[in-house]
Amino acid sequence: MKGCGFIGAYSIETENLTKRFVLNRGLLDLIRNPGRREVITTLDGVNLKVREGEVLGLLGPNGAGKSTLIKILCTLILPSEGNAYVGGFDVVKEGGKARSCIGFITTDERSFYWRLSGRENLQFFATLHNLPRSIARDRVEELLDVVSLKNRADEPFLNYSAGMKQRMAIARGLLNDPAVLFMDEPTRSLDPGAAKSLRDFIKEHIVMQRGKTVLISTHQMDEAEELCHKVAILDEGKIKAHASPNELKGRLSADSSLRDVFSFYTGKDFAQEDSKTMPFFMRRNGKRGHGLGMGMKRKGF
Amino acid sequence: MMSFEKALWFIKRGYLLQMSYRFDFFLRMFFMLFNILTYYFIAKMMGDAAAQYLEPYGGDYFSFVLIGMAFSGYLMISLRSFSESVRDEQMMGTLEAMLVTPTPTTSIIALSSLWSFIFASFRVLLYLIIGIVLGVNMTDANVGGALLILILTIICFSSIGILSASFIMVFKRGDPINMLLMGTSELFGGVLFPIEVFPEWLQNISRILPITYSVNGMRHALLQGYSLGELAPDILTLALFSIALLPLSLLIFERSVMKVKAEGGLVQY
User: Fold this and answer.
1) Quick one: A150 exposed, middle or buried, by C-beta within 10 A (0-12, 13-18, 19+)?
2) Cα(B259)–Cα(B215) distance, rounded to whole angstroms?
3) Which among B9, B100, B265 is the nearest to A124, CB-wise?
4) Contact residues on chain B for A102, CB-CB shorter than 8 A
5) ipTM computed for the complex
6) A169, A174, A181, A244: which is closest to A212 by C-alpha?
7) What are the boundaries of each domain within chain B?
8) Of A74, A78, A80, which has the smallest distance from its Cβ to B100's Cβ?
9) How far apart are CA A48 and CA A29, in angstroms?
10) Which of A10, A131, B8, B101 could bond to A136 as cystine, CB 3.0-4.6 Å?
11) Which of B16, B17, B93 sits opposite A108 (nearest CB)?
């Protein structure tokens, strides 16, 4: 694997990965109950293995722990227990080396400098990836070409449409030619046409041409079926199932869909999950507990 | 070599962002001129009234206050820039994208502040040029000594700024170091008036503040052309502050990063 450590067969591997967050409490609550400590378990003994060149779809309802898992693998959050390796590097002990193997594609369009041009943004992030100037320049031009933004590259980022911003995020994720790509709901803010076009792009350019290992978290079942070699269903911090989409469907009945698989393993209706905005700290059964999405409103950890 | 390229890109980014808000830039420059003129006329009004206090600094209040204002700017920038760069990147949403690159967090924060220091230096230069135009005499200046004091000042103040950023990293708001030092330094640091004006017991507060030695040394170097030997007490004190504060602040910052990574609050604000 280019630029990464010895990894054996797996690009991503987690062993009993657990993450617990201590909840922040208000001053009054601290005074009333000084000894109490409220903890939520967002990931609970997660074991995952992703082979080189494999595309794994991470499916789960809001608050299942998908973003927490991706952020631990990207070294942005430390796990409470267990181990995680990306590109053969321990994400806790060898964070810098692990990050050199990683490309992170986030849906947050704010993660760019809006007043800089697309080209300037990419050149800036290329430097942070330790790419020397000449290599950075060539890589940026190549990627602008790949994402079809070369003719708009000198415009300020703020002029770009949602689809263009997402393509810029993909270009940035590929700057260091990473062995492993993490995509956190890459089509979330796109209309169906733009989402389809992005999916085609990921399939053609990232998976087929470049053979990257990809971990993609998504709510879109058709996206998972179209892109992923394997799917892991994560719910309340636990991996409920991990196999290829066909294998998972085959476990139910001949005419079942991935949507049925999702409902079977999580006990939740996908259509509702997809559109529902959960109140703070409430699980779908209405009880307090673990399962808190990184993108959701919370009191802060 | 890579660090140099990174530094250049951070400076370029700061410059491009600053220049994309041109009106803000020109307003700041304009009101800086107002500030200088205010003290110029206060000094004119005072005449020789404060001569007994100003004698160790050359006797002229405008020269005294100009150096104080110009170099206290470094304290403000050092205290604010690290914590503000953490907070700005958090709020803009760019911090996470930077932290998944192999560049260490400490380098990202330090480099993010680089433009602020360059901008502060530009302001200091403007202060000095306007001061000279308005009659401040720096013909005997010991430029080498002033540069040495400037470097120690930046190291010392930056260390305090990194401590301040550690607080912001963990608590997000309400940094006590910043509030305490900003308030006390302006009053007790000898920025706007000599500390000799204070009764002896209050002067003890001034003596524990790095800014006192910074502006004092700078005035002696630029206005009176003191030699390195004569500047030694201020230089040594600033060096001691730097030696004590820099490793401590870096250690605390590293710990803060680990703490927020464990809590999952690295990109929250």
Assistant:
1) middle
2) 36
3) B9
4) 100
5) 0.80
6) A181
7) 2-263
8) A74
9) 38
10) A131
11) B93
Digit-by-digit pLDDT tens for chain A (301 residues) are 545 665 567 899 999 999 998 877 777 777 777 777 788 899 999 999 999 889 999 998 888 899 899 999 999 999 999 999 999 999 999 998 999 999 998 877 778 998 899 999 999 999 999 999 889 999 999 999 888 889 999 999 999 988 889 889 989 999 999 999 999 888 777 778 778 888 888 888 888 888 889 999 988 888 888 889 999 999 989 999 999 988 988 888 878 888 888 888 888 776 555 444 433 333 333 343 333 344 333 333 2
Cβ-based contacts under 8 A for chains A and B: 99
Torsion, CA A24, CA A30, CA A32, CA A33, rounded to 10: 70
- With contacts defined as CB-CB under 8 Å, which chain B residues touch A80? 262
Which residue type, as a one-letter code, is found at position A33?
Answer: N
Nearest chain A residue to B265, by CA: A301
> In what helix (H) or strand (E) does residue A3 lie, and over which residues does it extend?
none
Can you spell out the DSSP letters for A5-52?
Answer: ---TTEEEEEEEEEEEEEPP--HHHHHHSTT---EEEEEEEEEEEEET
Q: Does domain A1-101+212-301 have CATH number 3.40.50.300?
A: yes
Q: Which two tokens stand for residue B210?
A: 């790095």
pTM here is 0.81
Residues from chain A contacting residue B20 (CB–CB below 8 Å):
115
Q: Rounded to an integer, what distance in angstroms lies between the CA atom of residue A102 and that of residue A179?
A: 6
Q: Which residue shows structure tokens 């927490």?
A: A68
Q: Which residues, 6 or more positions from A258, have their beta carbon under 8 angstroms from its beta carbon?
A: A59, A221, A224, A225, A231, A245, A248, A249
- Start-end of H helices in chain B: 2-19, 22-46, 51-54, 61-92, 95-99, 105-112, 114-133, 143-171, 176-188, 200-207, 210-223, 228-263
Q: What are phi and psi of B79, to 5 degrees?
A: -70, -35
Query: Three-class SS of residue B139?
Result: coil
Domains in chain A: boundaries: 1-101+212-301
Q: How many residues does chain A have?
A: 301
B94 → closest Cβ in A111, A123, A176: A111
Buried b / exposed e across B149-159, counting CB within 10 Å, b at 16+? bbebbbbbbbb
Chain A residues inside the 8 Å CB shell of B108: 128
DSSP state, A207? I
